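Encode chain A's predicted structure.
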Amino acid sequence: MATFLYKLGRLAFRRRHFVALIWVALLTLAGVGAASAPPAGNSSFSIPGTEAQKAFDLLEQRFPGQSADGATARVVFKAPSGEKMTDADNKAAVHKTVDELADGSEVASVADPYKGNAVSKDGTVAYASVKYDVSGMELEESTKDALEDAAQQARDAGLTVEIGGDALQAVPETGATEIIGIAVAAVVLVITFGSLVAAGLPLLTALIGVGIGVSSITALASALELGSTTSILAMMIGLAVGIDYALFIVSRYRAELAEGREREEAAGRAVGTAGSAVVFAGLTVVIALVGLAVVNIPMLTKMGVAAAGTVAIAVLIALTMIPALLGYAGRRVKPAGAKGKRFGRSRKETEQSEGRPKANLGTRWASFVVRRPLAVLLLGVIGLGAAAVPATSLELGLPDDGSQPTSTTQRRAYDLLSEGFGPGFNGPLMVVVDAKGSGAPKDAFTDVEKQIKDLDGVVAVTPPAPNKGGDTATITVVPDSKPSSVQTEDLVHAIRDAGGDIEAKTGAETLVTGSTAMNIDVSEKLNDALVPYLVLVVGLAFLLLIVVFRSILVPLKAALGFLLSVMAALGAVVAVFQWGWLSGLMGVEETGPVMSMMPIFMVGVVFGLAMDYEVFLVTRMREAYVHGETPHQAVVTGFKHGARVVTAAAVIMMAVFAGFIGSSESMVKMIGFGLAIAVFFDAFVVRMAIVPAVLALLGKKAWWLPKWLDRALPNVDVEGEGLRTADERGAGPDEDRELVRT
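Encoded structure for chain A:
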């Protein structure tokens, strides 16, 4: 592989005009496709294999024409202090609002509060349910404006009016902090390279890669039903890895220049060595993201595949466009240790003036760890263990209007409904009774209604509402607890258990659905899939790392270190988003359960990113060991060449992820924080402290590999030994191919 990538790097350096033209053409093509593509509709949220999804599909089949996936809105009215919603003036204002809403072109139906028993017992709160023909993301702006105008007229009449539901659903915004993250990355790159030109290359290529990836997602969003969150997450991950991958290749290029090589040769060797690490690091990220498909949640699968595609583009750009741009930059990119005039004396000049070489911080730190490996190992493990303690209190759920900021009308409508009708009113359960196989459907409907009324935790049960065929009915159940509570989850299971007895007696099948039941099923499905996902992803990456490092213990140590960092990151997420620690600083207005897909998504993404640092740092150690250094010397050498760059890469990735904490979408905010803190734990505690400590303790055993396995594994030559051997024999890789196994 090193030889192939070496040739690719030299080719891209020589044919830079052609390479640059290809990438600019791809960016233009993707941009045109995104601009001309139809707007994305609402991404379908289906959960195959769950009871809630089965019931939803049955509703669409047995109750045709009712727009089961159409947007809904609850216009909630509250009377002024001392008045009732049944007072004549208030009643007239509500009727006027209902009439105006019913005139909308996309409105399927509007329920009058006074005819539908939608007034609270104390008479202070009422609500009108609005059903639309299309989903929330497909509603015309004029329809949303009409909804808000109707509510405003009721407010002008003296009522308090808020709007809940998904009719006012908006595309999430990331906020200005995303730009701040990129600015921090730029500053770190300038400090690392001491050159504006060298610092600009990783930023430029990362932005081009993300531009192609996100534009492609936008172009395909309508056809593939990709939600807005998909492109945001692809941007987040693609930007972070794009900068990092380019950073490693540019850094290796400068190191090759410092050894006296010509620029084209340096570009080839940089791509052949650091580029090999980039390929395998990218593969681990892609495996982790594509592996999300095993969960069998289409939305999560699409998010993973889209982000994986952006990562693949980042790898290809780093391997081809970076050497091409280095060709354009010429002497403006200095060798390692040399700085431009505006950045003061070079490192070599400083060392010469002092009369001796000065060990860099990475060398001094590695030497310290090698001398005291056990103490560093224990301190790192205990520290991450302490950070992981809050994860033992992890509560999972999916966000609803109750998790929105109190400044939103959706959240205020949620609170008004809880005040007037009880906390369970915001999460009603829909029970679907399929009596097609029953001899007496009506009796079956009545039996289900009676059984549910006798259960604990039920406030209200509506009479069965059969379809035209009379073989299926829906029953709405209002719990006495809020949607995200354990009590509501227990009630869902109790109804399902009772349904089993009813089916055995009457032949009618009872299914529970609705947003609350769907959230419960999603959480359970994600929990059940976590262990198989871990086995698949960690297992595949473990095999990949055995090939890269030609060792058993190094990949094992890498996987165990990842588990430490991801558990510590989950603990931090629980502390902030569930317990409320530093919630004000993070802009978290409402604490609550951690999103159900957060653990498995973090496992996938963090594992891929953790292996990035493992590959970049340890391949340098492996390279030194292969070239004859002792295990302890190899650890120090790996840090001498790699610590500064890995540190810069980690800070950049943290800055990019932290930039998404400013998003208005709670899921994006939580993932941004979780990934940023996970990178901190993994890069600075696991890879910078625990990894060298373990390698120092293991010594030569770290690089042990059974002879039979060594013979069976392909030699991918990540450390570039083939290039070194060919050079030492006085022949370039092109003329001495028989010496290199690719």
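The longest helix spans residues 515-549.
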